[in-house]
Write a structure and sequence with these properties.
Order of helices and strands of chain A: EHEHEHHEHEEEEEEEEEEH
CATH topology of chain A: Rossmann fold
Radius of gyration of chain B: 19 Å
Distance between the termini of chain A: 13 Å
CATH superfamily of chain A: Class I glutamine amidotransferase (GATase) domain
Number of strands of chain B: 11
Number of domains of chain A: 1
Strand content of chain B: 15-25%
Helix content of chain A: 25-40%
Largest sheet of chain A: 8 strands, mixed
Number of helices of chain B: 13
Distance between the termini of chain B: 13 Å
Oligomer: heterodimer
Radius of gyration of chain A: 15 Å
Largest sheet of chain B: 8 strands, parallel, barrel
Strand order of the largest sheet of chain A: 2-1-3-4-14-13-12-9
Chain lengths: ~200, ~290
């Protein structure tokens, strides 16, 4: 069973449907015991970083997510759910994240670029990962975000170029983060989700 | 590199597609899910659903329709038409849309843009702008501009010293229309575009009323003028009729995405054909 964490933000339904499409049994939940008992955990997210952290804390789920990672269960953060894994974000003021991965979340440099970064962009794998099995080279995924994770190279599993490379997939051990929307990235996104569901 | 997007636009009414793909062996041509699957298979980068329901009951069908499509088609969805409140936006986003598009309501209540952006993030808020070129010496616009009986303030020396109607011998201008392109607003399209971005719009869906339905090409001057002043992506709409039109608007017109409706619905061109052509022209597309 995969626990899809419901912390009061964004569109969880599309992520749930995409996971079910690739064969997962999904429980949408904010219950700590259910999350800790799950085989795998997905932390989705649409919206602002600060709202996301507030939603997690209000439900006592910040500690639960840390405990999931400490126990070594596979956890996948998507979009803002990836960003909150990091230490802090500059989005609408300074917000402290879960600090499970080192690095900050910063805004794309405006003036030189259209922000938000909206549309399909290429994901170039930088390290081998279970997530990338059966993923053709030069695959495009759907992004829709104004902030990105300034992640160290050793965490960066795939990079995407938008005014310079940024981390579009990160991972350490069984903790993963995806900046784009796999639930909206057609076959490419479903392949990544299937890989997480089947291997993690 | 970020790919340029191709976006089919489907009109829906009372939860059914009324302007969508023709000439295919559809079990049910009015079924939004079937229509979405066809465009997904063709390589559409995103789908726009425009609700043209005329009644509250009809509009109430939109969220359930979005849910059905989003549950089954894993592609970005933008939904517009009849969205008037933050609660309307929320219902559509929770149903699985990635972005909501607002048009008349944004003109009437600009605060809706900022409220939506604060609540859901700018990346969810698209403002649709329907713009019509202002004819030279157009009386309506000039009267608007000179409503106080004085020439408009300008930095242009020649204009300041020799007051002339603002459109004469100068850059073309465009006026914003609402209510499906029927009602002029007096707003300058470029000024309005800049303002909606200031308020928090994350994308502009720009339709040329002049070009719409002509198949003579997008309004390149309009598209470029808007794309150059706003720091957010611009979707060009209205006038697509040939392969070259797509290439033009995505290069010369500086658009980030090109939207078309009947051209794709009537199979005059397929999305695959357009993408092959664009790739051959050196335009980055998702293949």
């Amino acid at each position: 069973m995969i626990a899809l964490i419901d912390y009061g933000i964004g569109n969880l339904r599309s992520v749930q449907k995409a996971l079910e499409h690739v064969g997962a049994t999904v429980t949408l939940t904010e219950d700590a015991d259910t999350i800790l008992a799950a085989d795998k955990v997905v932390l989705p997210g649409v919206g602002a970083f600060g709202d996301g952290m507030k939603g997690l804390r209000a439900r006592g789920l910040d500690g639960v997510v840390r405990e999931v990672v400490r126990r070594g269960a596979p956890l996948l953060g998507i979009c803002v759910g990836m960003q909150v894994l990091f230490e802090a974000s500059d989005e609408l003021g300074l917000h402290v994240g879960l600090g499970l991965l080192p690095g900050r979340v910063v805004r794309f440099a405006p003036r030189q670029l259209k922000v938000p970064h909206t549309g399909w962009n290429e994901i170039a794998t930088r390290q081998s990962s279970n997530l990338f099995r059966d993923l053709p080279a030069g695959s495009f995924a759907y992004f829709n975000h104004s902030y990105y994770c300034a992640a160290a190279p050793e965490l960066t599993l795939a990079a995407t170029d938008y005014g310079g490379p940024f981390a579009s997939v990160v991972g350490r051990g069984r903790l993963y983060g995806i900046q784009f929307h796999p639930e909206k990235s057609q076959a490419v996104g479903l392949t990544l989700l299937r890989n997480f569901v089947e291997q993690g | 590199m970020l790919a340029k997007r191709l976006i089919p636009c489907l009109d829906v009414k009372d939860g059914r597609v009324v302007k969508g793909v023709h000439f295919v062996s559809l079990r049910d041509a009015g079924d939004p899910v079937e229509q979405a699957h066809i465009y997904d298979a063709e390589g559409a980068d995103e789908l726009v659903f425009l609700d043209i329901s005329a009644t509250p009951d009809g509009r109430a069908t939109v969220a359930p329709m979005v849910r059905r499509v989003a549950d089954d088609v894993f592609l970005p969805l933008t939904v517009g038409g009849g969205i008037r409140t933050v609660d309307d936006m929320r219902a559509i986003l929770l149903a699985g849309a990635d972005k909501v598009s607002i048009n008349s309501a944004a003109v009437k209540t600009p605060e809706l843009i900022s409220a939506g952006a604060e609540r859901f993030g700018s990346q969810c808020v698209v403002v649709a702008i329907d713009a019509k070129r202002v004819a030279m010496n157009n009386e309506t616009m000039n009267n608007e501009q000179w409503a106080d009986g004085q020439p408009p303030a300008t930095n242009n020396q020649s204009q300041a010293t020799n007051p002339q109607p603002p459109t004469t011998n100068h850059q073309p201008r465009w006026e914003v229309y609402v209510s499906g392109g029927r009602t002029p607003t007096g707003l300058d399209a470029l000024e309005w575009a800049a303002r909606v971005v200031e308020l928090g719009a994350g994308e502009i869906l720009l339709t040329s009323i002049d070009a719409d339905g002509t198949k003579n090409g997008y309004d390149l001057a309009l598209t470029r003028a808007v794309a150059e002043i706003v720091p957010v992506p611009v979707i060009a709409s209205g006038g697509a009729g040939s392969l070259a039109h797509f290439a033009e608007v995505l290069t010369e017109g500086r658009a980030d995405a090109a939207l078309a409706a009947s051209l794709f619905h009537d199979k005059l061109l397929s999305i695959g054909e357009v993408k092959s052509y664009l790739a051959a022209q050196g335009v980055v597309v998702r293949r």
